[in-house]
Amino acid sequence: MNSLELPFLGWLPLLLGYNLIFVAPPLLLFGAYRVFGSRHKAWFERYEKRLKYEARETMLWIVGIVGFLLLADALRRLEVFNLFSFS
């Protein structure tokens, strides 16, 4: 947001949208667990198992994507693609 040099009213919706998508759901789950944890313990335990599985899979995707981007950047910086004639 800094590099876009947006005014306050320009980046505020971006920040609010980010918080709505990425920050609010975990906070809502935590609040629900604190309020309803004892009554709905089985549901939260099932949901916890699913979250752990999904988190592991998401981490593998992130590592794969970051690895690919690092490889592509290294090949570009080493000018590997300039060694081949594509014309």
Provide an overview of this structure.
There is one protein chain. The protein starts with 7 loop residues before the first helix and ends in a 10-residue tail after the last helix. The chain is mainly alpha-helical and 87 residues long. It has 2 helices and no strands. The mean pLDDT is 87. Helix content is 76%, strand content 0%. It is flat and about 65 Å long. The longest helix is centred in the C-terminal third of the chain and has 37 residues, at 41-77. The protein folds into 2 domains: 1-36, no CATH class; 38-87.
Features:
76% helix, 2 domains, 2 helices, single chain, 87 residues, mainly alpha
User: Which structural class matches the secondary elements?
Assistant: mainly alpha
Question: Are there runs of 5+ residues with pLDDT below 50, and where?
Answer: none
Helix content: over 70%
- Strand content bin: under 5%
Overall tally of domains: 2
The number of distinct helices, counting runs of at least 4 residues, comes to 2
Listing every helix as H and every strand as E from the N terminus to the C terminus, the arrangement reads HH
Give a quick precis of the structure.
This protein is mainly α. Helices cover 76% and strands 0% of the residues.
Write the layout of secondary structure elements.
Layout: H1 8-36, H2 41-77
